[in-house]
Design goal:
single chain, 170 residues, mainly beta, Porin, 8-stranded antiparallel barrel, 1 helix, 10 strands, globular
Length: 170
Protein backbone atom coordinates (compact mmCIF):
# COMPACT_ATOMS: atom_id res chain seq x y z
CA UNK A 1 0.00 0.00 0.00
CA UNK A 2 2.94 2.30 0.74
CA UNK A 3 4.19 1.84 -2.87
CA UNK A 4 0.72 2.68 -4.21
CA UNK A 5 0.71 6.09 -2.52
CA UNK A 6 4.32 6.69 -3.55
CA UNK A 7 3.39 6.02 -7.19
CA UNK A 8 0.37 8.36 -6.91
CA UNK A 9 2.72 11.05 -5.61
CA UNK A 10 5.14 10.46 -8.50
CA UNK A 11 2.27 10.55 -11.02
CA UNK A 12 0.93 13.78 -9.49
CA UNK A 13 4.35 15.42 -9.63
CA UNK A 14 4.82 14.28 -13.24
CA UNK A 15 1.55 15.82 -14.35
CA UNK A 16 2.19 19.03 -12.41
CA UNK A 17 4.58 20.03 -15.19
CA UNK A 18 1.75 20.26 -17.73
CA UNK A 19 1.83 23.88 -18.90
CA UNK A 20 -1.47 25.70 -19.12
CA UNK A 21 -1.26 29.05 -20.89
CA UNK A 22 -2.97 32.04 -19.30
CA UNK A 23 -6.27 33.24 -20.72
CA UNK A 24 -4.47 36.27 -22.22
CA UNK A 25 -2.42 34.00 -24.50
CA UNK A 26 -5.14 31.74 -25.89
CA UNK A 27 -8.88 31.67 -26.35
CA UNK A 28 -10.76 30.05 -23.49
CA UNK A 29 -11.69 26.36 -23.57
CA UNK A 30 -8.80 25.03 -25.60
CA UNK A 31 -7.46 22.49 -23.16
CA UNK A 32 -9.33 19.82 -21.26
CA UNK A 33 -8.28 17.76 -18.25
CA UNK A 34 -10.02 14.47 -17.51
CA UNK A 35 -9.58 13.06 -14.00
CA UNK A 36 -10.91 9.52 -13.69
CA UNK A 37 -11.15 6.59 -11.33
CA UNK A 38 -12.60 3.14 -11.67
CA UNK A 39 -11.92 -0.58 -11.79
CA UNK A 40 -8.99 -1.86 -13.87
CA UNK A 41 -9.52 -5.30 -15.41
CA UNK A 42 -12.93 -5.81 -13.78
CA UNK A 43 -13.55 -8.96 -15.83
CA UNK A 44 -10.64 -10.83 -14.16
CA UNK A 45 -11.66 -11.39 -10.54
CA UNK A 46 -8.11 -12.34 -9.46
CA UNK A 47 -6.42 -9.27 -11.01
CA UNK A 48 -9.08 -6.55 -10.73
CA UNK A 49 -7.94 -3.41 -8.91
CA UNK A 50 -8.94 0.18 -8.41
CA UNK A 51 -7.12 2.86 -10.32
CA UNK A 52 -6.84 6.63 -10.82
CA UNK A 53 -5.81 8.50 -13.93
CA UNK A 54 -5.37 11.84 -15.62
CA UNK A 55 -5.72 12.74 -19.29
CA UNK A 56 -5.01 15.97 -21.16
CA UNK A 57 -6.58 16.98 -24.45
CA UNK A 58 -5.70 20.12 -26.44
CA UNK A 59 -8.63 21.13 -28.62
CA UNK A 60 -6.48 23.67 -30.48
CA UNK A 61 -4.39 20.88 -32.07
CA UNK A 62 -7.15 19.25 -34.10
CA UNK A 63 -7.51 17.86 -37.60
CA UNK A 64 -10.69 17.54 -39.60
CA UNK A 65 -11.18 14.06 -41.07
CA UNK A 66 -13.91 11.81 -42.37
CA UNK A 67 -14.39 10.75 -38.71
CA UNK A 68 -14.93 14.33 -37.57
CA UNK A 69 -12.70 16.63 -35.53
CA UNK A 70 -9.78 14.55 -34.18
CA UNK A 71 -7.61 15.91 -31.37
CA UNK A 72 -4.60 14.53 -29.47
CA UNK A 73 -4.75 13.08 -25.97
CA UNK A 74 -2.00 12.23 -23.50
CA UNK A 75 -2.41 10.61 -20.12
CA UNK A 76 -1.71 7.87 -17.69
CA UNK A 77 -3.10 5.84 -14.86
CA UNK A 78 -1.89 3.99 -11.80
CA UNK A 79 -3.56 0.95 -10.22
CA UNK A 80 -3.61 0.04 -6.56
CA UNK A 81 -1.34 -2.90 -7.47
CA UNK A 82 1.30 -0.44 -8.78
CA UNK A 83 0.71 -1.16 -12.47
CA UNK A 84 0.87 1.95 -14.62
CA UNK A 85 0.17 2.93 -18.20
CA UNK A 86 1.30 6.09 -20.01
CA UNK A 87 -0.27 6.78 -23.40
CA UNK A 88 -0.73 9.25 -26.20
CA UNK A 89 -3.27 9.00 -28.99
CA UNK A 90 -6.32 10.64 -30.51
CA UNK A 91 -9.99 11.14 -29.77
CA UNK A 92 -13.04 12.57 -31.47
CA UNK A 93 -16.20 13.96 -29.91
CA UNK A 94 -19.78 13.63 -31.11
CA UNK A 95 -22.24 16.04 -29.47
CA UNK A 96 -25.91 15.10 -29.10
CA UNK A 97 -27.27 18.07 -27.18
CA UNK A 98 -26.03 17.77 -23.59
CA UNK A 99 -24.77 14.21 -24.23
CA UNK A 100 -21.23 13.74 -25.61
CA UNK A 101 -19.85 10.45 -26.98
CA UNK A 102 -16.06 10.32 -27.19
CA UNK A 103 -14.26 7.34 -28.78
CA UNK A 104 -10.46 7.27 -28.55
CA UNK A 105 -7.43 5.16 -29.40
CA UNK A 106 -4.02 5.41 -27.73
CA UNK A 107 -0.89 3.26 -27.81
CA UNK A 108 1.28 3.43 -24.73
CA UNK A 109 3.75 1.92 -22.29
CA UNK A 110 2.43 -0.50 -19.65
CA UNK A 111 4.29 -1.77 -16.58
CA UNK A 112 2.57 -4.47 -14.53
CA UNK A 113 4.07 -3.58 -11.14
CA UNK A 114 2.45 -6.09 -8.77
CA UNK A 115 -0.64 -6.32 -10.98
CA UNK A 116 -1.65 -8.14 -14.13
CA UNK A 117 1.02 -9.00 -16.69
CA UNK A 118 -0.41 -7.99 -20.08
CA UNK A 119 2.38 -9.72 -21.97
CA UNK A 120 4.22 -6.83 -23.62
CA UNK A 121 5.24 -3.25 -22.73
CA UNK A 122 3.51 -1.77 -25.81
CA UNK A 123 -0.25 -1.84 -25.28
CA UNK A 124 -3.14 -0.30 -27.21
CA UNK A 125 -6.10 1.33 -25.46
CA UNK A 126 -9.49 1.60 -27.18
CA UNK A 127 -12.06 3.56 -25.21
CA UNK A 128 -15.56 4.98 -25.45
CA UNK A 129 -16.78 7.64 -23.06
CA UNK A 130 -20.30 8.98 -22.59
CA UNK A 131 -20.52 12.23 -20.69
CA UNK A 132 -23.10 14.82 -19.74
CA UNK A 133 -22.45 18.50 -20.21
CA UNK A 134 -22.96 20.06 -16.75
CA UNK A 135 -21.89 23.54 -17.85
CA UNK A 136 -19.96 25.17 -20.67
CA UNK A 137 -16.67 24.01 -19.14
CA UNK A 138 -17.58 20.93 -17.07
CA UNK A 139 -18.61 17.37 -17.93
CA UNK A 140 -19.26 14.22 -15.92
CA UNK A 141 -19.31 10.80 -17.51
CA UNK A 142 -18.57 7.11 -17.60
CA UNK A 143 -16.19 5.25 -19.87
CA UNK A 144 -15.14 1.75 -20.81
CA UNK A 145 -11.79 0.72 -22.28
CA UNK A 146 -9.98 -2.35 -23.45
CA UNK A 147 -6.19 -2.59 -23.35
CA UNK A 148 -4.42 -5.19 -25.49
CA UNK A 149 -1.01 -5.77 -27.06
CA UNK A 150 -2.51 -6.96 -30.38
CA UNK A 151 -0.70 -10.30 -29.93
CA UNK A 152 2.75 -8.68 -30.12
CA UNK A 153 3.82 -10.51 -26.96
CA UNK A 154 3.97 -14.20 -26.09
CA UNK A 155 0.60 -13.79 -24.39
CA UNK A 156 -2.25 -11.30 -24.81
CA UNK A 157 -4.71 -11.49 -21.92
CA UNK A 158 -6.00 -7.92 -22.31
CA UNK A 159 -7.77 -5.89 -19.65
CA UNK A 160 -11.27 -4.38 -19.54
CA UNK A 161 -11.89 -1.36 -17.33
CA UNK A 162 -14.66 1.07 -16.46
CA UNK A 163 -14.27 4.57 -15.08
CA UNK A 164 -16.12 7.60 -13.75
CA UNK A 165 -14.79 10.73 -15.44
CA UNK A 166 -14.74 14.38 -14.41
CA UNK A 167 -13.72 16.72 -17.24
CA UNK A 168 -12.83 20.37 -16.89
CA UNK A 169 -12.00 22.74 -19.75
CA UNK A 170 -9.70 25.74 -19.37
Amino acid sequence: MKNFFLNILILSISFSFVNFASSDEIDPIETEVNVYTGMFDFSDTKQASGFVGLQHQNDELFRESFLGKISPITGGFLTEKNAFYFYTGAQTEYNFGPLIITPSFAPGYYNSGDGKDLGYPLEFKSEVQVSLNLSETTEFGMSYNHISNASLGTKNPGANSYMLNFLKQF
